[in-house]
Design brief:
By secondary structure, the chain is mostly beta strands. It contains two helices and ten strands; from the N terminus they run E-H-E-E-E-E-E-E-E-H-E-E. Bound molecules: zinc ion.
Length: 155
Amino acid sequence: MKTSTFRIVPLPTEVAEEARHVAESGAADHAVIKVDSPIGYPCRHCLRWAQPGERVILFSYTSIPAGHPYSETGPIFVHAEPCKRYSTTSEYPADFRIGRVLRAYDANYNMIDAEVVNGREPEEVIEKLFQISKIAFVDARSVSRGCFTFRIQRA
Ligand SMILES: [Zn+2]
């Protein structure tokens, strides 16, 4: 098997735990939602779809830091209950092989390129993007809602 050229970067555990802590305090900007669809609520920590009956926290996350033209803060979900951080980081997460757009950035957070993965192998799209030497990382986002899902770095 070919060695992966990329590394999946799920949401840091401390960010998920902080969101759970803040949600428990009843903060208005951390909504607790009961999941009602099997493919509507992607958890950014375990990189799986939260399942009906589970609860998720909806809060704002800064994926591209302030102070840059492409700065971006937007809504993401994490499981309300502790979950295991996605660990098979050399493999593209199976739950998100469709419905994602891959946005490629340079080291200064400028967007260089973007590709929709629907109907294509995401690994091939990532490999193609990383052939552009100035691309430092790639963010996977929802193709419909635009929400940040996970980051992909060079291996
Ligand atoms: Zn989770």
